[in-house]
Amino acid sequence: MIYCLDTSAFVQPWHERYPIDVFAPYWNKVKEWTDDGRIIAPEEVMVEVAKIDDDLLAWVKRHKSMFQPPDERVQRVVQEILSNHSRLVDTKKGRSIADPWVIGQASVSEATVVTEELPSRGKSPKIPDVCEDMGIPYTNVLGLIRAMRLRFR
Length: 153
Hints:
The protein is of the alpha/beta class. Helix content is 50%, strand content 9%.
């Protein structure tokens, strides 16, 4: 199984739920899972993470191999996503720029999206809403940890 990580799957765990000083085994496994091709993310996620120059950005820069440049197939899926879900990206505030790329990469790679976003079911869709509409599986970081059978003992 391949997992495609959203920006929120880096930022929230790093800063709030699974900080590296307590959960180093998780972050070490993310590196391992990246090396064996089970964890990917589009380049746009790295661009979003880079908005804040902190220790997460330093970690991400050391693990660049997980970040995929968009190929033609991903670009076509992103166009489809944006034509069907134009409010997914907040162009006025410059937010959620990576979201269609995460979903597009997951679609092309037959991956499960990993996001900390919750469905909105409102006017402005979130990643889970679009994944549900497109039949793309998604989970959160805890779901990834469980699926990969990582145990902290």
